[in-house]
Amino acid sequence: MYGGVSANFLRGGATTIENAEYGTAAVLKFEKTPIYYLLGRGEASGRWILADGEGIDSYPQLAEFALGGGTDHLVNLLEFPKEAALRGVSLSLTSDLPGGFSDDQLAVVTQLFPALGLACYRIAASKTAADFLAVYTGAKTSARILAGDIQRGKGAAINAAVLLADLRNFTALTEVYQPGEIARFLDEHFELIGRHVEENSGEILKFMGDSVLAIFPTGSEEGEDPRKACTAALASARNLLEANEALNLRRKREGGPDIGVDVVLHLGEVFYGNVGARGRLDFTVIGRAVNEASRLEKLCGELGQHLLMSESFAAACGTACERLGSFELRGVSKRADVFKLAAATL
Q1: Residue 166 to residue 306: CA distance in whole angstroms
Q2: How many structural domains is the chain composed of?
Q3: Domain stops at, among 67, 102, 137
C-alpha cells in the first residue's frame, strides 16, 4: 500500500507521520528530495549548506527548511539486511545555527546515525512483520499468533456466525479473459467483500479460489451474544451484495462481465486454531458448521437466490425470514431447512 513512511520531528513542534501511498502525489514528491538524489547516485550520505543556497532550487523540502531558518542539512542512508522487506532508512538532520553543524557535532552524528539505524531496523522489522501477518491472516488472528498460538492442533471450539461468499460462474470467465484480468476481477470483488465484513467486526480467514470464508464470533468479554453476531453477519451480506450490484453496473458500462456473488450465512460451533503440516500451518476454522455452509452455497444457483441462511442463523438473526424448504446436503446426514430474507425485508 505504501512506498514509504516518514516521521518528522520539529523542535518545539509536533511529531508528524506521513504515509506515501503508491500512485499518489506523495510518491512523486519523494522523487524531488535529497534522499532520492542519493539513491540514484548510489551514495550513502550527503550535506547541503542551506545558508549558501545549496539544494534550495532543486529540492522544495530544502527550500522550506531554509525559509524556516535552516542553515545546514545532513542526510545519511542506511540499508537494511537483504532478508528484510524494507529497503532501509534515511536519517536527516537540519541545523538552524549560524555556520551550521560544527566539526564536533558532525563527529557525534557520525557515531549516532548507525545506532539510530539499528534501532529503526528493529522497530520497522517488528512492525512490518506484524502488519504483514495481519494482512495475510486478519487482525484478530494475527494477534493470537503473535501472542504464541503457533502450535499445530492448538485452538478452541467457539460459536460463530459463518459467512461464505462465492463468485457465481466465475470459472467460466477463465476461458474468456487473461489471467491478469481475472486477478483484477477477483481483487475488485474481494475488496468490497472484505470492506463490508470488517466494518461489521467480522474477520476474513481465507480466500479459496473465488470464495471467501469469514466469521463473526458470538463470544466477547460481555459473554455470548449469537443475535449480535448474526445481525453483523447479515448486515455484511446485504451491504456487500448491494455493493456488488453497483460494481457490476460500472463494469457493464465499461464492457466487462457481470459477476454475481452468492452468500451463505450459518451459525454453529467451529474449531478455531492451527491445522496443517509440521512446517506449514494454517490458522483457520474447521468443523461441521463450515462444511454445512459450503454445502448450502451449492443451493444458491438451484434456488435462484444470492443469499441463503441456515435454520440456526435465521432463528438468531432477529430478522423476518422465509423458509424455502428442506434439502439434502452432500455428506450431511440430516436434511437442512433453508431460509431467505422475507420479501418485506429485502
Answers
A1: 10
A2: 2
A3: 137
**Is 314 in contact with 339 (CB distance < 8 Å)?**
yes
**C-alpha span between 281 and 275 (Å, rounded):** 6
Q: For 184-241, how does the pLDDT look when each residue is reduced to its tens digit (9 = 90+)?
A: 999 999 999 999 999 999 999 989 889 999 999 998 767 789 999 999 999 999 999 9
Q: Which of 137, 165, 184 is the last residue of a domain?
A: 137
Q: Which 3 state secondary structure label does DSSP give 311?
A: helix
User: In 3D, which of 150, 257, 240 has the Cα closest to residue 195?
Assistant: 240
**Same domain as 295, residue 212:** yes
User: How many C-beta neighbours within 10 Å does residue 338 have?
Assistant: 23
271 and 325 together in one domain:
yes
The three cell numbers locating residue 297: 452455497
Alpha helical stretches, state H, the chain: 25-30, 34-41, 60-67, 103-137, 139-146, 170-173, 179-198, 226-253, 288-297, 299-303, 311-316
Q: Which domain holds residue 204?
A: 151-345
The CA radius of gyration of the chain, in Å to the nearest whole number, is: 27
